[in-house]
Amino acid sequence: MKPSKQPSPIRVVAGVATQDHQVLVAQRQPDTQFISWWEFPGGKVEQGETDQQALKREWREEFGVDIHVGAPIVETEFDYGDKVILLCSFWCDILDGPPMLHQHQAIYWSEPRRLDAGVFSGADRPLIKVLCERFNRIARSESADKADAILHDPSPAVMKKCGEGGGQ
């Protein structure tokens, strides 16, 4: 019996926009695999794209807005059985807009601690944990400058991984 070959990971990016200590999440359209799950907006990195280019393209397609892609947050890998997703998340700022619903059924601004990980895909759940930790540190910080540094300071290991990968 041959061991089953693990599928190559699909590189996916997600953007985390913030507003008043809240993050933007979007509810997917119903489909067969991720029925109406919530997600951090983004999508697959196409061949020849950088992570940042893919994230900008996805937000334009999904919400009709341009974004500035900032520092990476965390990289996670999740095996869904039929595919493996390598998710790299980035801080982002919406440059124009408000976001319009082009490919989602709803969007919502929420404090990370109020997000129910059970309604997010498996690849997004570690990101929720990281966001909760960061926002809890912000709540304990004494100054706005310190809070901004906590929120946007990526770890060197994440910076090395995220942003280097491009489409296959």
Short overview:
The protein has helices at residues 51-63, 125-140, 144-152, 156-161, and strands at 10-19, 22-28, 38-39, 42-44, 67-79, 84-94, 104-110. With 168 residues, it is α+β, with helices and mostly antiparallel strands.
Mean pLDDT: 83
Derived from helix and strand composition plus strand pairing, the structural class reads: alpha+beta
What overall form do the CA principal axes indicate?
globular
Number of strands: 7
Q: What fraction of residues sit in β-strands?
A: 25-35%
Largest sheet: 7 strands, mixed
The helical percent reads: 25-40%
Order of helices and strands: EEEEHEEEHHH
Number of helices: 4
Low-confidence stretches: 155-160
Q: Measured on Cα atoms, how large is the radius of gyration?
A: 16 Å
From the N-terminal CA to the C-terminal CA, the straight-line distance is 30 Å
How would you describe this protein?
The protein is of the alpha+beta class and 168 residues long. Helices cover 26% and strands 32% of the residues. The protein has four helices and seven strands, in the order E-E-E-E-H-E-E-E-H-H-H. It has helices at 51-63, 125-140, 144-152, 156-161, and strands at 10-19, 22-28, 38-39, 42-44, 67-79, 84-94, 104-110. The chain is globular.
How is the secondary structure organized here?
Elements: E1 10-19, E2 22-28, E3 38-39, E4 42-44, H1 51-63, E5 67-79, E6 84-94, E7 104-110, H2 125-140, H3 144-152, H4 156-161
Parallel strand pairs: 1-6
Antiparallel strand pairs: 1-2, 1-4, 2-3, 2-7, 5-6
Helix pairs in contact: 2-3
